[in-house]
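User: My instructor asked us to take a sequence, write out its structure as tokens, and then describe one feature of it. I'm not sure where to start. Here is the sequence I was given:
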Amino acid sequence: MPTEGDLGPQLSVRLTYLLKRAQLGLDGLHEELLGPLGVNHRELAVLLLLDAREPESQQQVAGRLGVDRTTMVALIDGLEGKGLVARRPDAADRRRNVIALTGAGRKTLRRATRASDEAEGRLLDGLDEVEAAQLRALLGRIARPGEQR
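Assistant: Let's start with the prediction itself. The structure tokens for your sequence are:
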């Protein structure tokens, strides 16, 4: 990773650069820790969303995650191919399919959540608990600008 001296004082303090470096670091940690479980951080996001809600359509899941339809089809196809989710007819509207976690999906989700927690912990290792909580809170405020501050 480049040092601050390599970058100069103007780039090394820019949010774009800092957030990108943090994201790359977290992506690498997720790849290392989630890889053995057969999922990546994007698939984990889908599993987490599905676990927290009633089964929803692929389009609803895509909208909640801010993912385009083509990408969501590939994500769901991959998760379905791994036996982690299943498409099934909606009980309320049989013309529509919903996505639901399978038993294997729930088991993988538990393991992947622990691995993701470890990745986040490693990324935030240089912060104490208060600082880590502050960072999460501040990023949450930035990520959800329309919510109450």
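For the description part of your assignment, you could build on this observation: The chain has one domain: 13-143. Try explaining in your own words what that tells you about the chain.
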